[in-house]
Design goal:
The protein is mainly α and about 55 residues long. It has a domain at about 25-53. It has one helix spanning about 10-50. The mean pLDDT is about 85.
Length: about 55
């Protein structure tokens, strides 16, 4: 875990690093989401078809 930023400490570089980590994490999760959506979409369509009958 990263150290806490003390009050009055110059935190621009810490904040920028945190923002970059968050952005990278979101990009990685987007890839995971797409993989899961591709896997589950045919099952969702089939379930909807069966329930509509």
């Amino acid at each position: 875990m990263e150290k806490a930023i003390e009050p009055g400490e110059d935190c621009d570089s810490e904040r920028e690093a945190l923002c970059q980590n968050i952005i990278e994490g979101c990009r990685e999760m987007w890839d995971v989401y797409l993989d899961m959506a591709r896997e589950w979409e045919p099952l969702d369509i089939e379930a909807d078809r069966i329930l509509d009958e």
